[in-house]
Amino acid sequence: MSRIKALTAGLAAAGCLIAVAGCSSVSNSVDQSSAGSPKTFSNVAYVGWPNDWVSSMGNYTLTGSGTSKDNKPFFDTVVLFASNIVSSTNPPTTNTPALNILNSDLGETNPKGSAPDISWITGAVNSLHAQGVSVQLAILPNGGQQNGWSCSSTNATGAQTFAEQVANAVTTYGFDGISIDDEYASCSGSVTGLQTMVNAIQAQPAMKNKVITESVYYPMAYQFPTIAPSLAQVYTEDYNGTSDIDSLSQYPGVAASNFFVGISPYDPTYDVTQTNQSHCGINEAATANAVGKQLASSTKTFGGAMVFSPVQQLNGTAGQAEYYTQLAQGEYGSGATVTYPSSAPQPPAFANPCSTMNPADVTPAKPKK
C-alpha cells in the first residue's frame, strides 16, 4: 500500500461528499444503535513515515466505551509501512525475491529526504510492545519488477531465500508478524505463487507463533479461499466506507472476526488546497463514524477498522484523537472518547502533505467492483 496509492481514489472521496450530508462538520452527539453493545474491536493503524510518529500510536487511549477496552490503547496493532520485495540481481531477474527494509518509507526520517536510517525501528517496536500494542512489518513489491507476492515464476528455491530474509527481519526487530501488500509487481496474478511464498515463510522456525495478515482490495478476490487459512487477519483497502463491510463475501474462507474495514482519513480543514486531492485521504470523520456504527450493529462480529496513514492526513495528535473519537463513538456509542495524553511525548509537527505533494505523481486509482 504505497503511501499515496490508495489515497488516489478521488471518486471515493467525491462519494463521501455526496453521500454524507455535512461531511466536513461532524456532530459529537450522534445516535448510536451500538450503545451498550458487548462487542469490542481490535483496531489497526498503518503507519510508516515520518517515523517519529510510530511510537506515538500506542498513546491514543480509549475511554467511555463501557468495555474491557477502556483505558487501553485504541489501536491493538500497528503495521509498519512498508518494506519492499526487490530482485536480488541487477538488472532484476525473475524468481529472485529479496527483502529491502532500507527504503524511502522506513529508511528516512522527518523531514523527508534525509539520509536513510532504520536504527529507530527496534526502539519503536519495543515502545509499542510496552504499551500492549503488537507490530507487524508490511511488505510491498517494488513497482514494475518481476518479483512479488503472487508471481507464477516463483518456485520453492526463490521463496526459501526470501523467507529466510523475512524471518531474520522479524527476529532482528522483534516484529509480531508480517502483513502482505500484494501490489505493483508486474507479475502478480498467481495464487500458487503466493501460497509458495507464504508456505516458505511459515516453515521458518523464527515465524512460529508469528502472524501473517494481508491487505486486500476487490481484484485480489481470486486468492480466496486458497490463501485464507494462512492469514490471521485481512484488511480491506478499497476505502469505500460502509460498503466495504459487505465485501466480506468476496473473500471466502475469511471469518468476520478476522476482517477489518479500511479507512483512509481525510480532514478538509487540514487540506489547505481545498481540492480534496486523493493523496490527502478519502474518508471524512462522518464516514469513519458510519463505519463504526455498522461494525457495531452488524449481526456478525467483525475484527474492527484499519486506519491507513493517519499521520500524513490528520492534523497532529489533536486532529487524530478527534477523528479516532468519531470512529470509537460509532463502535461503542456516544460516550466513547479517544485522547492523546498531554504527558505523553509529542512528535514533531508534520507539514501538511496536501500542499506539498504533486498530484502528477499519484498512481491511478484501483478498479472497483
Describe the structure using short key phrases.
eight-stranded parallel barrel, 23% helix, single chain, alpha/beta, globular, TIM Barrel, 7 helices, 369 residues, three-stranded antiparallel beta sheet, disordered C terminus, 12 strands
Report what the structure shows.
The chain has 369 residues and is of the alpha/beta class. Helix 3 (156-173) links the parallel strand 6 (134-141) and strand 7 (177-181). Mean pLDDT is 82; it is low at 1-37 and 355-369. It has a single domain, classed as Glycosidases (TIM Barrel). It has helices at 10-19, 121-130, 156-173, 191-202, 285-297, 310-313, 316-332, and strands at 43-47, 61-63, 72-73, 75-87, 97-100, 134-141, 177-181, 211-216, 233-236, 259-263, 304-308, 337-339. An eight-stranded parallel beta barrel has the order 1-4-6-7-8-9-10-11. A three-stranded antiparallel β-sheet has the order 3-2-12.
Q: How is the topology of this model organized?
A:
Blueprint: H1 10-19, E1 43-47, E2 61-63, E3 72-73, E4 75-87, E5 97-100, H2 121-130, E6 134-141, H3 156-173, E7 177-181, H4 191-202, E8 211-216, E9 233-236, E10 259-263, H5 285-297, E11 304-308, H6 310-313, H7 316-332, E12 337-339
Parallel strand pairs: 1-4, 1-11, 4-6, 6-7, 7-8, 8-9, 9-10, 10-11
Antiparallel strand pairs: 2-3, 2-12, 4-5
Helix pairs in contact: 3-4, 5-7
